[in-house]
Amino acid sequence: MSHHDHPNAELGPLQIAELPKDKVARFDAALPEILKRYPADHKEAAMLAALRRAQEIFGWLSPAAQRLVADRLGAPVTRAEEVATFYVMYHTRPVGRHVVEVCTNVSCSLAGGYDIFEDLKRKLGVENGGTTGDGRITLRQVECLGSCGTAPAMLVDEEMHEGLTSQSVAKILGALP
Ligand code: FES
Q1: Could you tell me how far CA 38 lies from the centroid of its own chain?
Q2: Best substitution site from 110, 140, 148, 150 to test ligand 1's pocket, by max atoms within 8 Å of Cβ?
Q3: Which of 35, 101, 121, 148 is deepest in the core (most CB within 10 A)?
Q4: Quick one: which atom of ligand 1 is closest to the CA of 103?
């Protein structure tokens, strides 16, 4: 079999090992919930959900991240690649220098998280998943970050910020290089 016949043939299994281990662990921890929601006869839906979760965790769907998802779902890598490149909500290219992920789940929304997200969209001039024109910030809406007790919460480059106010958000983002 030549590379021409199989575009993923050059992607070795080592690629998964090149992903940050803590993020792979986060993905694996999230997987049972996804598989529970989408049983075996809904594999396609599980693929969509798993890619979405992988993107939230890894920032974008690199070939390695696509391979990880395919591997965990027991699907061909080509399938993960097809889905990831077909839908606009998936990023198959790197994101901005900083990734700002605002939780808009129930606890955070009740505490103002959704307003913070909408406010940031307006200030940065981007939609959900969008990157500012200067490539500085990618803004993303995410599901519960596990900081509901100190809502609203956001992750900035994997660092958790809690008890957010519009002032503290402005200060945190202003301090980013
Ligand atoms: S609902 Fe936002 S951290 Fe849980």
Answers
A1: 19
A2: 148
A3: 101
A4: 2
Ligand 1 centroid–CA 158 distance in Å is: 15
**Predicted TM-score of the model (pTM):** 0.58
Domain with CATH 3.40.30.10 in the chain: 98-174
Ligand 1 mutation target, pool 56, 108, 161, most atoms within 8 A of CB: 108
How deeply is 21 buried, as exposed, middle or buried, from its count of CB atoms within 10 A (0-12, 13-18, 19+)?
exposed
- Spacing, Cα 153 to ligand 1 middle (Å): 6
Q: Dump pLDDT digits (tens) for 93-148.
A: 778 989 899 999 999 999 999 999 999 999 999 998 889 989 899 998 988 999 99
Q: How far is 136 from 73, CA to CA, in rounded Å? A: 33
CATH for the 98-174 domain, from 3.40.50.1980, 3.40.30.10, 3.20.20.140, 3.40.50.150: 3.40.30.10
CB-neighbour burial class of residue 121 (10 A; exposed 0-12, middle 13-18, buried 19+): middle
Ligand 1 pocket, residue 11 CB under 6 Å: no
